[in-house]
From TrEMBL:
One of its GO terms (cellular component) is extracellular region. This is Uncharacterized protein. It comes from the Eukaryota. It comes from Solanum verrucosum. It holds the Pfam family Lipase_GDSL. The lineage of its organism: Eukaryota, Viridiplantae, Streptophyta, Embryophyta, Tracheophyta. InterPro entries: GDSL (IPR001087), GDSL_esterase/lipase (IPR051238), SGNH_hydro_sf (IPR036514). Belongs to the 'GDSL' lipolytic enzyme family. GO terms for molecular function: hydrolase activity, acting on ester bonds. Its main location: secreted.
């Protein structure tokens, strides 16, 4: 986990790589799950009643499909990791660089259907935070606890597709997980005292500790 905490920001990125199975001609990581906020959202907020949307120009002006709900002109960080992240494998006689090799972009939970969920799902939501109330003044959002619940629902759907829980767990244990969340807990919570009470209840240090503790518990649920 990479974490940065100071008086005004907390940015957390988690990459969990449990195991990689090399299969000739196939994706080196069979599935990829994404949790977070607007830095990773790829369309989950499109149909929500919220000001935190990006499904209109100039967002997406450099993306092949135009505006999709990504809060960027083109690909976001999750897209770049999925397509270009390289993994080093120590072979017997030489080092080899292997591309993750996902054939397409991971779908947002809001529109993921059928067997495509076996390749992964993006649960990220603009304005979402570690704390459930974060970003509420902007409208609806899928906070981290709800993203984790959505992942649980995805797993149940995967069990139906795969046939049993044991095989599903074996599949999940080879997947890549990324979480990028926490900045909204400051810019859309702690630093908005007219809307939220956290600024008056906690010192900056206390609030940072509170976020880290809650985040740690959420990661245990995810894993």
């Amino acid at each position: 986990m990479i974490a940065r905490v100071n008086n005004v920001t907390i940015t957390t990125i988690l990459i969990i790589l449990n195991f990689i199975i090399l299969v000739h001609g196939a994706s080196k990581v069979p599935c990829y799950f994404i949790f977070g906020d607007s830095l990773l959202d790829n369309g989950n907020n499109n149909n929500l009643n919220t000001e935190a949307k990006a499904n209109y120009p100039p967002y997406g002006i450099d993306f092949p499909n135009g505006p999709t709900g990504r809060f960027t002109n083109g690909r976001n960080m999750a897209d770049i990791l999925g397509h270009f992240l390289f993994l080093i494998f120590r072979l017997i006689y030489f080092d080899s660089w292997e591309l993750l090799g996902f054939d397409d972009y991971i779908p947002p939970f809001a529109s993921a259907i059928g067997r495509e969920i076996l390749q992964g799902v993006n649960y990220a939501s603009g304005s979402a935070g570690i704390r459930n109330e974060t970003g509420s003044h902007l409208g609806n959002r899928i906070f981290l606890d709800l993203q984790l619940q959505n992942h649980h629902n995805t797993i149940l759907r995967m069990v139906d597709l795969v046939g049993n829980r044991v095989a599903t767990n074996a599949h999940l244990n080879t997947c890549l997980y990324i979480v990028g969340i926490g900045s909204n807990d400051y810019i859309n919570n702690y630093l908005v005292p007219k809307r939220y009470s956290t600024n008056s209840l906690y010192t900056p240090s206390q609030y940072a500790t509170l976020l880290v503790q809650q985040y740690a518990q959420q990661l245990k649920v995810q894993h």
